[in-house]
Request: fold
Amino acid sequence: MTGATPAGEAELYDYLRDHGIAFRHHTHPPLHTVEESRALRGDLPGAHVKNMFMKDKKGAIWLATCLEDREIRIRDLEKEIGAKNLSFGKPDLLWESLGVRPGAVTPFGLLNDREGRVNFALDARLLDFDTINVHPLHNEATTAISRDDLMRFVALTGHEAVVVDFDALEALARARAESGGHAAAG
Reply:
């Protein structure tokens, strides 16, 4: 996205319409945490997600989208996706890469990754839901989109989802905790 103005909600929705991707828009006060989202969303159906924007020691950039209640150790995730020494990306890199600010990280940010720098990891369990709810490039609304249309959007932006078994990662973390931190990676 270097040098370009990032797409905002209007451009995102135009892009979705231009590609025949249906969506539903829900406006709400700014949300910064999963807890705030749970308190304000009411009975909005579908999967609700959290997103992690990360960078590894070699400069590879990752966006991971998973169910909102996941408790994942970054070290386990990096082994699964082949990254080394992942850490959360800085706000300037987030803006430069996905055109969003902290608190508004979303797979829709891939629209702004015109250089294809961002790798995308997706929780396999999200594929079990018909509808997935994500931010539309800011945190004052939620966009509901079908699972199939989200996957089509990802492909249209030139990205490929690395589907990750987050259930297995959580099981590994639980086993490690129960054994005093010494569970072997599988």
